[in-house]
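User: I'm writing a tutorial on reading structure tokens. Could you give me a worked example: one chain, its sequence, then its tokens, then a sentence or two explaining what the tokens reveal?
Assistant: Sure. Here is the example chain.
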Amino acid sequence: MCDSALPTGAFAHTFGMETYLQRGTVHDEATFQEWLAQFVDHQLVYADGLAVRLAAESCAAPGSGSGSGPGKDPRAGIDFLIELDALMYAQALPSQVRQAGLTMGKRLLDIGRLSLPGPCLESYAAQADAGTCHGHQAIAFGLIGTDHGVPATSLVSAYLFSTVTALMQNAVRGIPIGQNAGQRVLGDMRSHVTRAEQQIHELTLDDLGAVSPGLEIAQMQHENQRARMFMS
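And here are its predicted structure tokens:
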């Protein structure tokens, strides 16, 4: 699920980074890493990363610790997933970001059903088929992992780092920076991802969507950018 070649369409999205490229704010390895750290801390943590954890905990088996301890939400089951799905759709204010989450989510639902089927994923996918849920990538990721016994903390770290990896590869093509520079960024981001996972552990559903307006504005501006290489 974390392979950069997984055909979800991540290669076509920069989540607003291309706006910063056009401005000249991001133009080399150092400025890309600075943007990437801000994206992780001020958007990924409070949206997709938190959704992975909440989805995984909502589907965890009884006795696994779901619903207890700091930062955990006591609600569980499909009703909570429906609510989480609606909140993830609503909090994604830039239309391209909202559409990216759904497009990649539907692909991950299809891939999961074919390659890594399980009861939690199937329950959520059935709601998406019925139109009750939109089908978001982060929720699907959390449910697939939980179906196969992966702890929520490991799922969050994996999701964060796979997103960082996809954005690094797009920076290699889009800025462009060299492959060696991209690997240096990944190396430096490992400890950053660890801190982000620890932060997500302390958050609750009330924190979902507390995203930096500056990032959202850049993502909205991308919709009207004169020339684009990426879809978001």
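What the tokens reveal: The two ends are 22 Å apart (CA to CA). The chain has nine helices and no strands.
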